Amino acid sequence: MASLFSTLFAPPRRHHLDVIAGMWLPVIVVLFIILFFTFATDAFMTLRNLRAISGQASALLLACLGATFVVLMGSIDLSVGAIVLLVGAITVNAINALGLGVEALAVGILVGALLGTANGVIFAYGKIPSFVVTLGSLSIFTGAAWELLQGRAIRYDSSNFENLAIGQLIPFVQNIGLFAIGAWLVMVFVCFKTRFGRYMFIIGGGEAVARTTGIPVRRYKVTAFALSGMMAGLAGALAVARLGTAGPTLGQDLLLNSLAAIVVGGTSLSGGVGGVHRTLIGVLIIALLDNGLNLMGVNQYSQMMVKGAVVIAAVLVGQDRSKSVVMK
């Protein structure tokens, strides 16, 4: 474990300015946001509000972890929010129809993985840009979810499933937070200590080079999208467990927030730079902004403008200008 963290946070010998901008600047932004909202509103630094932030950030982090690998290899997944919505709708219906408890979590993970695999197969073997594939699947998955929900929120009755998210194995810490941190640690290990993680960097750095070295690029592309779908499925199931219901608006903010968190954290849209360790910082920035602006009474339209400006600023600061930002 010590060697893993030394690998993550030891600065490279070259490109020191890029390291500072990509790694330490987001941390400074987090600290600034905390200080700003602490003085701007008395409700920010309260135990109740911090618990609310942890719940919001946990669901967002889970949804972002798999998608980070997709961005890392130079592609994009626009369907994360739609997968969360569809998985939520399927999970609630499965609980009500089959009387499931904690087993419903496995259903959500499996469905998410299948949806992500479908995206990956069409992208890798159909040779269609990931932007187009996931834009289309976003519409398909959303329509399917709305069909299942029939335009209304559906509740479930399973205290065991509910406790998966809002129970407190550790006092004052909801279980969804433990799921999120545990998943983050696993994904950090996958990113830096497995062949799959190394190949994501190589493919993102140059797909042609990856092919010439014998890497089965298409197979790893499918795997990356399957992982993205699986983590979105986990996020969707736990979001339903946390809220006690699945409605048509579930996951609607994840399209912007997931990409924003990944990019703001320091993973480059051009691929090959960043990683899931940075996504945690990006998630904190987005979650803190959402919460603080809500407490200050800022309307949702202005919040979208603020987050959009933050994403643009993050890309301007953190992108590698020696590479063109092209989604593959």
Would you kindly provide a written description of the structure presented here, covering whatever features stand out?
The chain is mainly alpha-helical and 328 residues long. It has a single domain (16-318), classed as ABC transporter involved in vitamin B12 uptake, BtuC. The chain is 74% helix and 1% strand. The protein is built from 14 helices and two strands; from the N terminus they run ααααααβαααααβααα. The protein has helices at residues 2-9, 16-40, 47-72, 80-98, 103-126, 130-149, 159-166, 175-193, 195-205, 207-212, 217-243, 254-265, 276-295, 300-318; strands spanning 154-155, 245-246. It has a two-stranded antiparallel ribbon with strand order 1-2. Helix 8 (175-193) packs across helix 9. The protein is globular. The two termini are 33 Å apart. 45% of the residues are buried. The model is unreliable at 2-21 (pLDDT under 50).
